[in-house]
From TrEMBL:
PANTHER family: BETA-LACTAMASE-RELATED, BETA-LACTAMASE-RELATED DOMAIN-CONTAINING PROTEIN. The keyword Hydrolase applies. SUPFAM superfamilies: beta-lactamase/transpeptidase-like (SSF56601). It holds the Pfam family Beta-lactamase. Residues 13-315 form the Beta-lactamase-related domain. This is Beta-lactamase class C related penicillin binding protein.
Amino acid sequence: MKTMKYNKTELAIQKLIDDGVVPGVNYAFIDEDGIQRHLIGNKQIVPKEVPLDDGHLIYDMASLTKVVGTTMVILKLVEDGKLSLEDSISDYLPEWQYPEVTVRNLITHTSGIEGYIPHRDQLDHDELIKALFGLKAGAGLNHEMHYADVNFIFLGLIAKQVTGKAIQPLIEELVLKPLHMVNSSFHPDANKCVPTTYDEEHGLLQGHVHDPKAQVLGEDCGSAGLFSNMDDLLLFVESVLNPNDNPVLSSDTVCGFYTDQTKHDLGRSYGFERINYKGMPFIWQSGFTGTFIVIIPEKKHAMVFLSNRIHPVSPNEYYIERRKPLIETYLNENK
């Protein structure tokens, strides 16, 4: 049932469907009135049209893995005294040649890591990690925010060095289990998943991660790979909105999500981007596959948006053009 409170946002989402920007959307709002969930459009449009009629279907989270999973694990290890945000990453990854880069730099995307890896998607697991270690830290260290998967791949490798366990099993153990995110995993039942890309040679990509680096790195990938659904993401978002009730992290640590965690106010908290929109701070993170979370801490409001914008083909840049005004519409309805 639609409410007037977010009428403009809902109309904007409907227009995404009408304009063919995305096949369908599973979205929800959290506010003082509770949770309002909505489902519109199709699950897929090729090779045949299938309506999106199940609100519990599982989506490829892509980079939401960074905040839902890897960020939480790293902060838990910090709380447990197993590492510090100010530690040099070379303490844990001696193959890395730039000791001035810290764990904090990675989690806020201020590491300055730069460089190009030729034929990246043709490399195997060990070759890709070796190539990543061959990148360099440039002049942007601490002074520029450059969003890059390598930061969270390194965080995953650090967590493995500290615990002896790969990052994806750690996410399952330290995050998904205590949050009771029972529908979330790295190896979902394909029949319960919304498909991403489609081509005639391979058919639908369904229940298998889309991200090329995640395909290669497997359980060592901290930047992508998680599959989840609306039920579980709402549990995660509520745990961020309610620091005293978070079963993974202390309230002080959770409140750190709300503030800038960079040395020079570069607009990043732990994992999330932090933006002050017309005097109203919010944090958000998106995933390449068509997912995003927006959280307004002061109001305890949030929006969760799940789509498969790369269906039937990637990258669908038109979605990116439409996403920012959609989020601004939602924020304006929270003023």
